[in-house]
Amino acid sequence: MVQRSGDDVQSVAENAKRAGAAAVIIYNHLKGDWFAIPMETDENGEPDTKRFVPIVTISGGFGTHIKNQLAAGKTEIKLSSVKREKMVDFSSRGPANGIWDVKPDVTAPGVDIVSTLPRSLEKTGYGKMSGTSMATPHVAGAAALLLQKHPDWNPEQVKSALSNTAVELKDTEKKEYSPISQGAGRIDLPKAITTQSLVVSNRLSFGLLQPKTGVKKIDRSLRVENLSGKAKRYAVRVELDNGKKGIRVTVPSTLVVGAKSQGQVPVTMSFNTSLPRGIYTGAVFLKDGKQELKVPFIALNEPKGYEVITSLGQSAYIISPNGKDEHKFTLLTYYLAVAPSSLKITAESSEGGKKYLLYQTNNPAAGYTDWMWDGKDSKGKKLPDGDYAIIVECEYLGKKAEANFFVLIDTKAPVITELTADADQLSGKVKEAWLEEVSWRLAGEKDWQIIEDVNYVEDGLFEFHHAFTKGQLKPGKNLIIVRVKDSVGHVTTKRWKLNCHSDTGRKKAADIRQLGGPAAFFHALLSYFNTNSAVTGLWSLYSN
Q: What is the pTM of this model?
């Protein structure tokens, strides 16, 4: 038995195997829950018993208990068995940035779920997987069954049914998980299908508050739908998870709703913003006999760690202001979780670090923004070609934050620095940072043929090769056109004249003549006399 450390469980299992252990128990170094999935499988997905030993992970409390029992000399130790579910570490957690709402809405099984797999991946057609991709189908399937039972329900009612009736999950220490971990809880489909009441919305947010601004009073409301044919009297109560001394949430103690009717529950929060910065949660409960419905709520007193600004994406990474329309600009998308006091956008060159002011404003609105950049600064002056980091900076309550994008300005066409051809092969080199395509064709033909053999050399230099196949070149004179394109549509072409003869010597002489002119041609003549016994056709070649 070992305590959890910085090593991953796979390393622990491997080390234990080398040391001769039969199995390993890893207990958490903290008091609460811990769960890990040891990677103990071989390339076929089977337990790799040659490298690893079996592992079980337990909570810190259980680990300490076992350790103390062993120290007391006991070799048989009993642990209380608790039937429960728990949240895995990698489960998505809230709150929702910007709208400051409870997320997730609900929880569903998502660890070691047996599901179908392509037989190309698993011979049996089944396998275990973990993650959101496993939890989501549980909820989607539950929603489908709810709609089968209640085809007239809208999405809001389906969501409320799943959320209102969810089962609250607790950790090893029997402490309930926060709503920003489990939402309302784990879905309970039988309860959701048979519920006689719905509370809409399925969650409440009292928003983001600024600290040390006094006591804030915030009003919200919940709609209660009685689906049954009889009037219902609901007992209403509130539970706070934290901050009980500085927060007061008031609701009416009871609510009566007639058969097939609706009612409203006003919910008022009084929040003292002198409380420590952080996230405060709780829930409103409505009980009708044995059935109790739950609506989690959240209030945020300027918590630490959230992202003020997020870079979400860009339409293009390379732009050419002098190019075609679709390449002249890039659309930068960023998200402001709050309304900052100021915002500035600059471009910083990768060469020398020179900065350019692109845009500046005060008090921009929170939310999503699409900002178009066409390669110019705030005064309309074009920036030089090169790589730029586009930095969106903002300030909120004295806190500075930024989001970064990366854009290359390329207004120049590719340069073919070298081109050679003979009856066997076409080769060349291109200077271009973002080369997209190299192709060739004979003069007079319409279709370009893509050259597949293109390789990056260094510093934006590419080389290409194409081996001619039978019939691609014609006997006699051939005019080859090479075309290169970059990612923003710039095109460069270069022509090459090639005479194709059956005689090898004549072919070489013609090729060198194209490369170097008369001097190279006579050099070829000398070479030819040294290597050939006949000179038939040389003069006719020169006259050509």
A: 0.70
